[in-house]
Structure formats: structure tokens, C-alpha cells
Amino acid sequence: MTTTTSRIPVTKAVVPAAGLGTRFLPATKATPKEMLPVVDKPAIQYVVEEASAAGLSDILMVTGRNKRALEDHFDRAYELEELLVRKGDEDRLRRVRESVELANMHYVRQGDPKGLGHAVSVAEQHVAGQPFAVLLGDDLIDPRDPLLARMIEVQQELGGSVVALMEVDPSQIHLYGCAAVKANGFGEDVFQVTDLVEKPEPGEAPSNYAVIGRYVLDPLVFDVLRETPPGRGGEIQLTDALRELTTREAEAGGQVHGVLFKGRRYDTGDRADYLRAIVRLAAEREDLGPEFRSWLREFVGSELQD
């Protein structure tokens, strides 16, 4: 049994990035889905920036075949940097170097694509018995709404594992893991999770609280994942392992808590939501926003007249 200590500081993050990105074919035939640009940065950089801003300086990326571009992006590009230095282009040089300076990056391959639970399990040796965060690359959280920092605060205070929750329309809950919750007295945004269901059938969801792609996990989860059989889709589901943890309240590290998020979230896992994320983020940029918003108003106005 893994020994857990809830007061160990959270300094490590795991970013699963081994998926094939089939919803974005043919763009992802040779390019990792995580490297698709959201305005002018790949989606994965937003995720690493979020982890770094929350104080997580050690990041393990779980990758697979044809994902070498992820490693290259967070590495030095000496020839490009030298070219920009010679041109005196300090602005682009700064932007190229940003990704290198965010955190200490490490990489491991998942091997067999057996699901999110399996992807998390391959991080066990790197995590080394410490609580750790998991950030899914499809969910981009606006930096003005520091969800991860709040989740770490809750984990350090209450121990156990913490999942991020978001209220969704009941008609959409079948697209998510779903949590049954009860108040725990820690704050209006914090609940004890009493049950979890992966993508429940319509009418069978215990609530409209969806689990979104941020977790702070006690290392006890690795013990549970070793015993978790394939679930929905024939994959090892992290939701199933967390559901088992909700039954181990008396065991160190066994409780599961939820933090309700009401901030800005951009979903890049769906093509239509990916486009909406680009529009929202571009419209809010100081350098692009004014001109882009003006064009967008004209475009929408002309489309409505047609």
C-alpha cells in the first residue's frame, strides 16, 4: 500500500498527451493534436503555462508515437534563436524562449493506448509517492480564473484527491464523468464527492456536475488503478478509480473532494469548440483584439443579412 501524506507540497504535474486526435483528422495525421495552434501558441503550451503559474515546476508529459514535436517545442531552438538575435527581433525571441523556461519537462511514453487511467498510471515512478496534479490538454482554463491553485489549496487542507467540477446542462452530462456530491463545510465551492459515473446514460446521471480536465490526486490512486479493470470503451478509466477512492474514506488519501469552477474554460477537444476558443481568445488579446473584433462585427452583420 502506498504511504500518503496530505501535507506534502504539490510540485509535480502529469499531462497525458498520447491520444491520436482522430476528431481532427487529417490535420493530426502527422501533427500532434496538442500542437494545433490556438491563435499563435499550441494548445499544450497554455496547459503547461497554467501548471507553472500554480507553482508546479516539475511536469511529466505522457506521450506516444509521433509526438516528438511536443518535446521539440519545449526544448531550445538554437538555430532559430540565433537568427532572431541577428535580426534584433527581441519580441519573437522572447516568445520562442517562453516555452523553454516554464518548467522542468520530462517525458514518458504510454505504450498501449489503454485509456486515461492507464496514462496516469505510467507516471507512478516519476511522482514518487507525492500528491500531484493531472491536466488534460483539451481543457484550457483562463489564467484569470486560477482553478488549479484553488484545487491545490483544498488538497493541502483536506488531503485525499480533488477533482474539478462544472455545472452543465443535463442534456450534456452524458459527455462527461459525473459526480454525486454533498456539502463538506469547507466553502461554497468545495464538496465531498460521494460517487462518480463515467458518461452516464441520459436520465441516470446523479447530478449535473461534470468532471472537467483538472485533478489533484493522492498517490493512493496508483494502488487503485492497478486493480481497476477496463470500463467504458474497453479502457481503464480514471473516473472508475476515483469512484473506488470515494469508498475508502477511512483510508489515508481515500477521500475525494470537488471544487466547483464557474470561470472561463475553453474546450479544444471538439472542432466547433476549438474554433470558438480561438475566436474568444483572439478577441480578448490586446494586440489582436480591437482589429479582430471590428472585423468580426462586420462579418457577423453581413452573414445575418444574407
What fraction of the residues are assigned to beta strands by DSSP?
15-25%
- Counted by DSSP, the helix tally is 11
Oligomer: single chain
- Report, as a whole number of angstroms, the end-to-end distance: 65 Å
Instruction: Count every beta strand, where a strand is a DSSP E run of 2 or more residues.
Output: 13
- Give, in order, the helices and strands: EEEHEHHHEHHEEHEEEEHHEEHH
Give average pLDDT, whole number. Answer: 89
Radius of gyration: 20 Å
Q: Can you summarize the main beta sheet?
A: 5 strands, mixed, barrel
From the spread of the alpha carbons, the general shape counts as globular
Q: Provide the low-confidence segments as ranges.
A: 1-6
Plain-language structure description:
With 306 residues, the protein is of the alpha/beta class. It contains 11 helices and 13 strands. It has helices at 43-53, 68-73, 78-87, 90-98, 116-121, 124-127, 147-158, 220-227, 238-245, 271-284, 289-305, and strands at residues 12-16, 37-38, 41-42, 58-63, 104-109, 132-135, 139-141, 161-167, 177-183, 190-198, 209-217, 256-260, 265-267. A 5-stranded mixed beta barrel has the order 8-11-9-10-12. A two-stranded antiparallel ribbon has the order 2-3. Helix 3 runs antiparallel to helix 4 (90-98). It is globular, with a radius of gyration of 20 Å. The N and C termini lie far apart (65 Å). The model is unreliable at 1-6 (pLDDT under 50).
